[in-house]
Amino acid sequence: MKRDRSTGRVSPFALLLVFALGLWFLFNPFERINRENAEPRAVMARGDLAEDESNTIEIFKNTSSSVVYITSKALRRNLFSLNAVEIPQGTGSGIIWDKSGRIVTNFHVISDATTIQVTMSDQSQWDAVLLGAAPDKDLAVLQIRAPERLLRPIPIGETETLLVGQKVFAIGNPFGLDQTMTSGIISALDREIKAITGRVIHGVIQTDAAINPGNSGGPLLDSAGRLIGINTAIFSPSGAYAGIGFAVPVEEVNKVIPQLIKDGRLIKPGLGVSLTDNRIAGQLGIEGLIIVGVNEGSGAQRAGLRPTRQYGGDIIIGDIIKEIDGKPVRTVNDIQDILETHTIGENVPVTIERNKNEMVVQVELSSLN
After folding, report:
1. Which entry of 66, 72, 93, 138 is annotated as an active-site residue?
2. Residue 202 is a catalytic residue
3. Which of 13, 121, 140, 284 is 20 to 30 A distant from 49 in Cα terms?
């Protein structure tokens, strides 16, 4: 803008030019005509949804109301008042198991909780109590007293016929965002992961469907909307979705949950013996597990298995378990994994070493608990 060199003031001609340009932009007739004649563009018809889109929408409609949001709280002592207060412990997902108000979730979702609250798809909230838990399987059952009209169990599927590449869906509450659906494929089968107890969970389904914190305990569904697994873990350096998630297979769920409902715990079959740590056997150069005790009235006692004993000042090594059901054992976990495929009262062949001679004895399994 031009200034008068002698006074430093703005030239009147410059002010007049700016004013004229402003009026021209404000009352530009061509621009006004364009604005008056502007109309919304016609909306193009969408057409039918693709078949896989319709299927996905149908799955969500049919199963989302069967997925719940779980909030747990724990008692902590206030550092200043020393009073016990409840603080949020964590959140997760769960599924409606039956019309009696049983909810299935992961054990790690509620492991340290003193109070548990379940939020249904209609946003109604219900206090829950723990009916039973199987930490080794990372499964738990809760009980709520919701009306039957709100309780819609998910149909049970199977994992024996699953194939890598098959489409799957996960519904849950990642980061507290309830009723969230993600999709992907089965990226691997028969994986193994560790529960919080350190025990191995076998036959786990691996998927690339997005699973994040908060999805734990929610369902993994096949393309027919059937339950094929309970989402339980992710593999991620950052703790967020990294393309690999894991689900406990539905066969395991269907075997464990009825026991938890009935007995509150998982009743495991056992031989009725006490064993040394495998490290001790290794230090002695022994392959297998040394029996140090035999339970009174157990199948092991009836089979004549001998424990380690002291004779005078000498320690006489007991029978050494080498194999069970034809499978070699080197750790206590090996024995538990093998026996979990059998039932209480069943006889299993046990290969032992006694006085450097191997023999096979039949041992009737009894309750380990």
Report:
1. 138
2. no
3. 121
